Amino acid sequence: xxxxxxxxxxxxxxxxxxxxxxxxxxxxxxxxxxxxxxxxxxxxxxxxxxxxxxxxxxxxxxxxxxxxxxxxxxxxxxxxxxxxxxxxxxxxxxxxxxxxxxxxxxxxxxxxxxxxxxxxxxxxxxxxxxxxxxxxxx
Length: 138
Prior knowledge:
By secondary structure, the chain is mostly helical. The chain is built from 6 helices and 3 strands, in the order H-H-H-E-H-E-E-H-H. A 3-stranded mixed β-sheet has the order 1-2-3. Helix 2 (16-25) packs antiparallel against helix 3 (32-44). The radius of gyration is 23 Å and the shape is elongated. The model has no long low-confidence stretch (mean pLDDT 82).
């Protein structure tokens, strides 16, 4: 413990393992949840995007040709806020529909005439092997 204090005073960087050990052995006012959260922060740099991605088969998508009522039903049932909008198949992602952008038209006369294509945001293509911390920086 004394060596760690000296190192901290000298300004020498700590290794990930030393920080993790310090968190685990800390007798400060950190509760179990806070310690878990801090440990999770350290794990982010080791995590790849593929580890947090939703499998394609579990994605809730909206077909570009769907009617307003069907899209509304999908949004309400899923509880998600972002939806990939697809063309002819799941590999053809045309963009991302935000529920807020869509729901703005709910209950208005424009709801029947809204063209989903005009509401789409660009979809980012991210390699599965990318580190999560690098993606968060971007």
